Amino acid sequence: MDLIPVPLAAVPHEGGHRYALGPEPVLDAGPGTGGVARWLRRELGAATGWSLPPAGEGVRGDLRLRIGADPAGGLGPESYRLDIGADGAELTGATAAGLFWGAQTLRQLLGPDAHRRAPLPGRSWSLPYTAITDGPRFGWRGMMLDVARHFLPKDGVLRSIDLLAAHKLNVLHLHLTDDQGWRIEIKRHPRLTGVGAWRARSRRGHRASPLWNDTPHGGFYTQDDIREIVAYAAERHVRVVPEIDVPGHSQAAIAAYPQLGNTDVVDTGVLEVWDDWGISENVLAPTEAVLRFYEGVFEELLELFPAEVSPFVHVGGDECPKRQWRDSAAAQERIAQLGVDGEDGLQSWFVRHFDGWLAERGRRLIGWDEILEGGLAPGAAVSSWRGYAGGIAAAEAGHDVVMCPEQRVYLDHRQADGADEPVPIGYVRTLEDVYRFEPVPPQLSPEAAAHVLGAQANVWTEVMDSQDRLDYQVFPRLAAFAEVVWSRQPAPADRDFAGFEERMAAHYRRLDALGVAYRPPGGPLPWQRRPGLLGRPIEGAPPNV
Ligand code: ACM
């Protein structure tokens, strides 16, 4: 059946029988299944031409949707059971989410063309007789998308949500602000997007590249765009986690509002949104006024991302250069007044302020693992990116953790060692490397391991300036990642990568039907190469650092 991610248990019916679906299958949608029925009518309807009419009195549906208590036997709220036999397909979810993941399985079973947006002529449709019970290993199965370095227009975000959902991934972490751009409308601070959402030019390639693209770059999501994105994701059982990065990675905000910067050491009035890659020295000033400004930003954010959608709000907290705070008399005075431990203590103070502020509003702070350095409120969680160590320390201290070590699951990193890889950066991380990624380090105690909520793959976009470049970096590796976080896999060395590759043959046809410009197994196609654009490879890095 070539399902990806592979289900926990799938028993094919002996004899290879299939249930044939005619030109007008009937959809019997039981109580609580309306959202999934709507999705099936929209997606399968587009691909097949079916309208999927509801079952009338006494008519047995070809496809039957149900919510039932524990249909898969102890596999949790996102589990489902799918039975296909002579009387059609019956799909039962433990919740609407479980039902939705089962609907994704059903679509895969119909074949690659069920992922198209219009029917091809002459197609007939059938489903293999089978019994599948399935449910995810982790509740946080995510991808982080950096829409700051290169803006991804709204349609691209909606498409990404569909692609996540097709892989049973359920978290989209949106990195909305950085030195190179501010991407979300904040009504009380209109210059954040008026000024901060565009830059005059961009470096082509990574930091060592001498080339520039002189076309202005930018864009932002209006608040209604964000509401639409959040609602679209919710219908697909994907949570959107917003990130506003403080106190570093803030040059775009400072360019928009110069008083946010360290005005006693730099003339922030002449700063522009950064046009280069790297980590800007221009960080937020540690003042009460800056805290009030960002409280205003987060107030609007909380309204756009209700707690039911994401109790978590990501505050960044990574990579904050300290030079300006060292040089700033005002920052030094602040250190003395707060009694914190130097510039590092100032960074912790900044993050801890928003930790408490969010907790007072019933929300949970999540941040990159640097936030651990100053001590955290009990409910705060950590995105472990600098390897596993931060995640291990956080989990042992009782904090929830999302594993996303850069050495393993940064999908901006190159996929092979060849000179043909477009703008190669970072470590070589092949499809097999991602397949053998393990989110829970073996040395964790069982109590600490229970704090690993799951994992996410991170996609930074300095060298991805188009949807095709994004597709190339993300696929097929996201399919391997999906299997890591959904399926209950053995230890990395014991995983059946050859079997996964065999199933990928069918999955490439699904990605073709979905219009995804993935990296083919044989390497980049001529138009996927970027000859002459310098990246920043890390040469000779050991494979499992
Ligand atoms: C990060 O990669 N700076 C979180």
Describe the protein.
The chain is built from 17 helices and 24 strands. The chain folds into two domains: 126 residues, 2-Layer Sandwich (Chitobiase, domain 2); 389 residues, TIM Barrel. By secondary structure, the chain is of the alpha/beta class. The chain is globular, with a radius of gyration of 24 Å. Helices cover 32% and strands 19% of the residues. Acetamide (ACM) binds next to loops. The site of acetamide (ACM) has 5 residues, from loops.
Distinct compounds present: acetamide
Q: Assign the CATH superfamily of the largest domain.
A: Glycosidases
CATH class of the largest domain: Alpha Beta
Helix count equals 17
Mean pLDDT: 96
Question: In whole angstroms, how far apart are the ends?
Answer: 35 Å
What share of the residues lie within helices?
25-40%
**CATH 2nd-level architecture of the largest domain:** Alpha-Beta Barrel
The coarse overall form would be globular
Compile the SSE list and pairings.
Elements: E1 9-12, E2 18-21, E3 27-29, H1 34-48, E4 63-67, E5 80-85, E6 88-93, H2 96-110, E7 125-128, E8 130-134, E9 140-146, H3 154-166, E10 171-175, E11 177-178, E12 181-182, H4 191-194, E13 198-199, E14 202-204, E15 211-213, E16 217-218, H5 223-235, E17 239-246, H6 251-256, H7 288-304, E18 312-316, H8 323-327, H9 329-338, H10 342-360, E19 364-368, E20 381-384, H11 389-396, E21 400-403, H12 406-409, E22 425-426, H13 431-435, H14 446-449, E23 452-459, H15 467-474, H16 477-486, H17 497-514, E24 536-537
Parallel strand pairs: 3-4, 4-6, 9-10, 9-23, 10-17, 17-18, 18-19, 19-20, 20-21, 21-23, 22-24
Antiparallel strand pairs: 1-8, 2-7, 5-6, 5-8, 11-12, 13-16, 14-15
Helix pairs in contact: 1-2, 3-5, 9-10
The protein binds acetamide.
